[in-house]
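Forwarding these from the shared drive since the link keeps breaking.
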Amino acid sequence: MTGQQQRDHAGQGQEHEWPGVTVHEADPAAVEADFYHVRETVGPEDQELLATVRDWARKNLAPIADDYWERGEFPHELIPQLPGLGIAGLQFKGYGSPGRGALVAGLVSMELSRVDPSFATFHGVHSGLGIASVMECGSEEQKQRWIPEMLRWERLAAFALTEPGVGSGTSRGLTTTARREGDTWVLNGRKKWIGNATFADLVIVWAKDEADGEVKGFVVQQGAEGFTPHRIDGKVSLRTVQNAEIELRDVRVPEADRLQEANSFRDTAKVLRATRLGVSWNAVGCAMGAYEAARAYTLEREQFGKPIAAFQLVQDQLARMLADITACQTMNVRAAQLQDAGQLTDQQASMAKMFSTTRTREVVAHARELLGGNGILLDHEVARFWADAEALYSYEGTRDMNSLIVGRAATGISAFV
């Protein structure tokens, strides 16, 4: 029985009887890790979308997630199905976007991640970082040219900011350079950990202008001369995501493909503020998936003549996991509401990401513990969530860096350097 089958079976109610064990009907909200009914914070139409995404992920993504994760490959055959779901650029308005808002977009990311955090990351890079870069920093002409195709998944996007020697210090230490020659820019440098970079049609490359020292954004077409993505192998987290180290050697980009409203790192930060919350939602989904798989396992696994779910220590861990998940969900709902109102601050986004990824790390550790030795096997799904939580904990700002952003807000003192 696969992990998803275990979850579905366990969610149907207990079919067995054990001597000395009193069985009650499980709370459906606890079964699916939505104890405070966060899905009901959106309207009926949006709830229908969430149900559609949940059903699609269970039927199409869940059966293949472990296999692709183990092989370190990406299920490209699923991409043609995505336009029909209508989940790209949900948080934006105009240019063909559904315009459903940040809360719905976050809940969709949660639904994808509770089945496969790798696929949710692929979606987030394209729908969040890629589309957001053009929406926030592109000219009207560039939005008209690229956004509709990106919404239809006809052109896939990647976001190239992090470098081999520069992670948290990108605002000051970016080493990739851009030099203008007439109506053309020449890019040189290296990027690392760039999701989707091996197959994305449009790669948003952030580079420092040699003339004024400011960070600017450039849309590089896949296959451009001098643009070479090298897939990163040997990962133990988010293995399905095709991360790459990109080599840029005299890559020529026309001025028309420079993001016209990206004139400093402050503009880059506008993109990161919203997408940092997206990673927080992915972490929530990862925690939910681990909890649901572990809960199902504890009802199936019997020791001493009864399911291990009947033991107090097991129920205590499940209760702790569910409480952590619920705390993260409610924080993210409020942050998304602030984002929809145009009021989300950097420090609020950072708190959500810091808190959610930390709690997710704890939830997946509890899940792995509940499975004992089976916790390291892909057969029960928990191992995949356990490993994937490590990448979510680190990218889009580490826990420590995000804590310093919150700390600066609390004290008025910058402690970064």
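-- next protein --
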Amino acid sequence: MSDIEMLAVKVLRTFEERGWMLATAESCTGGMIAAAITDLTGASNVLERGFVTYSNEAKVEMLGVSPETLAAHGAVSAETAREMAAGALAHSRADVVVSVTGVAGPGGGTAEKPVGLVWFGLAMKGQEPRTEKRQFASSERALVRRDSVATALGLLLDAAYAEGP
């Protein structure tokens, strides 16, 4: 069993125990986080929906990300990750949302936003959304995306454990 499969199983079991529903708001991972959960029996017990918002237009239309945020900070930013997570929470019946937006590569990076830069958002009912930044060392698209999925699943587990048993 891969590390992603193990993390997905832990997320599934932990969310089932808490009676929580999950939604994802994904850009550079293109639905891979939701897919990691739906690969498992019992996924419908925890996965409420997934938003694949690869384009800026999709982020605005589906999640309510502000065009001003995108213009000022870009798609790969803490501000956009935060608004993606908050928007997915508002547009779903989920208790917890994870969002991801980044530069998967191999092209598209800049000095300010290099390949491997990924921002994550986490939103939970009744709490302010938070963000986390990762700079993955690899410039290989598949590895950046895989590491992003593992990180997102880990953030979901961290959020569950922070809430107690």
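The beta strands are 22-26, 47-52, 96-102, 117-124, 130-135. The helical segments are 3-18, 32-38, 56-63, 67-73, 78-90, 141-162.

- D.
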